[in-house]
Design a protein that fits this description.
The structure is a single chain. 0% of the residues lie in helices and 48% in strands. With 124 residues, it is an all-beta fold. Strands 2, 4, 5, 6, 9, 10 and 11 form a 7-stranded mixed beta sheet that branches. A hairpin with a 3-residue loop joins strand 5 and strand 6. The N and C termini lie far apart (40 Å).
């Protein structure tokens, strides 16, 4: 069983930036499909950004142009660069890994592995 460990969450001012990281507990675990989800207070879990392979990416409309998902193959780390943050981005962010190839990238039940999450708080 592989675990995913997120880090990088913090409290920032609106307009600021953060970079989240997600590291698998097994260094050789490098699934083709990975994603970042978030859960805002009182709202359901939502997909934020997903990556297929090295560079095929999908973004939620709410974060397009502000967030960038990427992976460092050498270090086996998944990143989420978040720029121009606003209060609506306040949430617990979790990374997810490994889904079937035909499942939608933001269908959270499709993913087999999840991290515990890291909190991002944006104050205006």
């Amino acid at each position: 069983q592989v675990e995913l460990v997120e880090s990088g969450g913090d409290s920032v001012q609106a307009g600021g930036s953060l970079r989240l990281s997600c590291v698998p507990s097994r260094s050789t675990y490098s699934p083709k499909y990975m994603a970042w989800f978030r859960q805002r207070p009182g709202k359901p879990r939502e997909g934020v950004a997903a990556i297929e392979g090295d560079d095929v990416t999908t973004y939620a409309d709410s974060v397009k142009g502000r967030f960038t998902i990427s992976r460092d193959k050498a270090k086996n780390i998944l990143y989420l660069q978040m720029d121009n943050l606003n209060s609506d981005d306040t949430a617990k962010y979790s990374c997810a890994a490994e889904k079937g190839p035909n499942r939608p990238p933001f269908l959270w039940v499709a993913y087999n592995h999840w991290g515990q999450g890291t909190q991002v708080t944006v104050s205006s």
